[in-house]
C-alpha cells in the first residue's frame, strides 16, 4: 500500500509547530513504549534494551538543551516561555534518575530494576505529557506572527546549526526516524545520500537498540 506523505509546511510560521509536533510525538511514543516493555522486559537482551532507554532519554534532554540555548531565548524577545523552562527543570530530575537506573543496570545486570524504572516514569508522566502537549500549543502559527517570516527563518537556521554541532548523529537521527510514522517520513528533510547511504550506516552502530522502536527507518 502506498503511503501518502504529509508535506512539511512552507509557511515559516507553521514550521516550528509542525516540527515540534513530530519530535514530541517521537518522545511520547518512546516513553509509552518503554513503560510497556518494562512490564515484561527482555532480560535476555538487556544491554540493547537499556541502550534504547538511554537513547530516547538522552535525546529528549538534548532536545531541551537546544530549546533552552537557542529557541526560547529567541522567542522570549517577544513572548513568554518561562513556564516551559520551569517544566524542563522539574522533568530533568526524573529523567536523570531514570538514566542512573539504566547506567547501573548496564554496569551490573543484577541491578536491573524494571519496577523502579517504571515507577520513575509513571511519577513523571503527568508533567511530561502536559509539557509535550502544551509546548505544541504555545508554538501556534498565530502566536508566532509577532515575528516576521524572516525572523522565524533566522531562528530555525540557528536551531539547525546548533543541532548539527551538538546532536549525536548515531542516536538522534535513528531515534527520530524509527519513531516517526510512515506518513510523516518526509520529515526531517534528508538529502538522498544521507537517507540511502549514510543513515543505514548510522543505524548499524546501535542496531540492537532500534529493534525496540515502533517504526522502521
Structural description of this entry:
The protein has 217 residues and is mainly α. It is 70% helix and 0% strand. The mean pLDDT is 93.
C-alpha termini separation? 17 Å
Q: Give helix % range.
A: over 70%
Topology as a string of helices (H) and strands (E):
HHHHHHHHH
Q: How many beta strands in the DSSP annotation? A: 0
Q: How many whole angstroms does the radius of gyration measure?
A: 18 Å
The major beta sheet can be summarized as:
none
Q: Which regions contain 5 or more consecutive residues with pLDDT less than 50? A: none
Q: Counting H and I runs of at least 4 residues, what is the number of helices?
A: 9
What key attributes describe this structure?
single chain, mainly alpha, 9 helices, 0% strand
